[in-house]
Amino acid sequence: EADIYQTPRYLVIGTGKKITLECSQTMGHDKMYWYQQDPGMELHLIHYSYGVNSTEKGDLSSESTVSRIRTEHFPLTLESARPSHTSQYLCASNSGRSDTQYFGPGTRLTVL
Amino acid sequence: DAKTTQPNSMESNEEEPVHLPCNHSTISGTDYIHWYRQLPSQGPEYVIHGLTSNVNNRMASLAIAEDRKSSTLILHRATLRDAAVYYCILSPPTSGTYKYIFGTGTRLKVLA
């Protein structure tokens, strides 16, 4: 069973607010990812990290930013949320020895 | 990055086998074939993966065509809990990032 956690599971906020979506894993995985998924649509990679102090932008442009100060923690931040940011955000991780990705339960974000 | 093609949706009766097809005609010689599924309101979960030979695990079987241009995920006895979106994904073995490209997947409906 995967040990990857996301908080909050659901978030409803007003436009202009700064938010941070948390993602933690206890498996010691060096690679971590953030995906964005609109309802009924495919997942799009928005950020990934090879390890501590390593972050890269994914295939889908996003106004969010990420940081990787600790191996187990990969938070995503939106400085000023807008209704266009309404979506589900999924965090995943895998070790360097396997390309099987383990996903968290997701955070469903609604910006009013 | 190699892409995959899957039917948008399929239906199956409970307790019957289900064969979910995936075409990947541009697969390279070293790409692995992964299958994930996403239950409603959850993150994707790993199902199975393979390279050339057919694979079995407790969840499913993976049948890979001899030319590797297609594969089939086999659920031997579908249950209501198998209703999900199933994704077929390719990944190179040493990409360094294991960046998955998710398509729209196949939405499996299981009828009681």
Describe this structure in words.
- The complex is a heterodimer of chains A (112) and B (112).
- In chain A, 0% of the residues lie in helices and 49% in strands.
- Chain A has strands at 4-7, 10-13, 19-25, 31-37, 43-51, 54-57, 65-66, 76-78, 87-94, 102-103, 107-111.
- In chain A, strands 2, 4, 5, 6, 9, 10 and 11 form a seven-stranded mixed β-sheet that branches. In chain A, strands 1-3-8-7 form a four-stranded antiparallel β-sheet, with no helix packed on it.
- Chain A is globular, with a radius of gyration of 13 Å.
- In chain A, 36% of the residues are buried.
- Chain B is an all-beta fold.
- Chain B has a five-stranded mixed β-sheet, with no helix packed on it. Chain B has a four-stranded antiparallel β-sheet with strand order 2-7-6-5, with no helix packed on it.
- Chain B is globular and about 40 Å long.
- In chain B, 35% of the residues are buried.
- At the A-B interface, strand 5, strand 9 and strand 10 of A face strand 3 and strand 4 of B.
Query: Kindly state the mean pLDDT of chain B as a whole number?
Result: 90
Helicity range of chain A: under 10%
Q: What is the H/E string of chain A?
A: EEEEEEEEEEE
Q: Please, what is the average pLDDT of chain A?
A: 92
Topology order of chain B in helix (H) and strand (E) letters: EEEEEEEEE
The largest interface is: A-B, 25 and 23 residues
Biggest beta-sheet profile of chain B: 5 strands, mixed
Q: What is the SS-derived class of chain A?
A: mainly beta
Sum up the overall morphology of chain B in one term: globular
Strand content of chain A: over 45%
Helix run count of chain A: 0
User: Widest sheet of chain B: strand order?
Assistant: 1-9-8-3-4
The strand count of chain B comes to 9
Unreliable residue stretches of chain B: none
Strand tally of chain A is 11
The largest β sheet of chain A comes out as: 7 strands, mixed
Structural class of chain B: mainly beta
Apparent shape of chain A: globular
Helix content of chain B: under 10%
Computed Rg of chain B: 13 Å
Terminus-to-terminus distance of chain A: 35 Å
